[in-house]
Amino acid sequence: MPQLPTPSYKHTRKALRAPVYKSLDADVFTKVWAENSALTARSAKALHSVGVLRHWQEGQVVLCRGQATSTALLLVKGRLRVSVTTPEGEEQLLRWMLPGEISGLSSVFAETTYPADLVAVGTTQVLHIERPRLIDLINRDPAVAVDLLRILGLRINQLFDTLADQGMHSLEQRVWATLERIAKFNSVAVPDGVMLRVSQSDLAQAAMASRQRVNQQLRQFQDQGLIRLGYRNIVLLRTPSRED
Predict the structure, then answer these.
(1) Structural domains in the chain?
(2) Count of CB atoms situated within 10 Å of the CB of 89
(3) pTM of full prediction above 0.85
(4) Which of 162, 153, 140 is nearest to 106 (CA)?
(5) pLDDT for 7-59, tens place per residue?
């Protein structure tokens, strides 16, 4: 996947947006992310042969942080919200799990508890694969094993990306970096830019800041012509050609 250059985070229209949006293509990012973070069709078919499909409704908790589990989860349809709760009782959104992605591998292989809360967003279909069946499949099919290792590697890289974003001291930096991160896996192209399907509450949780402060920062970005705020969405506006 192409890498986004690090923006300068200065309070100028060009300084914030030009280095980023010259290389930003929502269709490419979404397609590459989906292809890289999802299992191959061959592996998915093999897992379907040993798993059980279950249906979940909006708001249902599929797994809780700290819950013992021996099941890997392959998302077939819908979205799953992945989050943790801080010691202060505040939810922190980590990411959304999209169709074709698998979760719970580290817990299944290490025989430990699940590290986050997993909640259904809308009507969701999830393939549940029990550990004995998964291990047996891996022993019989090395190609599936390699594919699962690739997914675990991507999860580790994503974790470091998230930690790097959270380590930024400036709220402006954290919010901007979070917008970039969400654009990679939860966005669609629109005529004047890239639309992120995220509410301000979710964005605040992901950026580890209060909704009020994030809203103020977003309005500053909007005043600078960087974004357009909508209902449960944020459009990252493209750089006019004269600024490239």
Answers:
(1) 13-34+170-243 (1.10.10.10), 40-164 (2.60.120.10)
(2) 6
(3) no
(4) 153
(5) 433 344 444 444 444 444 444 444 444 456 678 889 999 999 999 999 999 99
